[in-house]
Write a structure and sequence with these properties.
Layout lengths: L4 E5 L1 E4 L2 E9 L3 E3 L3 E2 L6 H13 L4 E11 L6 E9 L7 E5 L5 E9 L10 H14 L2 H5 L4
Amino acid sequence: MTPNKVCPVVMRCQDGLAEILAFRHPKAGFQLIKGTIEPGEAPEIAALRELAEESGINDAVVGRELGLWLSGHEGQVWWMAVVEPAAPLPDTWSHHAPDDGGMELFFFWQPLHVSLGPGWHPVFERAIAFVSKLRSSNEWRRKSLL
């Protein structure tokens, strides 16, 4: 199975609870950072490129690979990995992303222990469930992830 999308997962622990970086797209609701792997591009490079393009985070490293995920959406196979920014990130911010003619994306931290509210596309709901399930597994703990 070959991935055609990447999803750089940025997480933090706030007051002992895990949160995942998300954003509000002005036309498409709440989402995680995700994008297309360009021809000949390694998933690790694509993840960092998409992270920079969509969020403005330019200084980060790929931490642990989470694996491939069948999204169930338009034949997309996502390569997912935890990405670690070099510096702490603010609680909220906006970034002008050049994609789709340029859009202002509004970033926030979604607590994993809180049910997602309205406005989430089902594919991103499933992606967060996939990350949450991995996070609760013994393998996640052995890899020393949040």
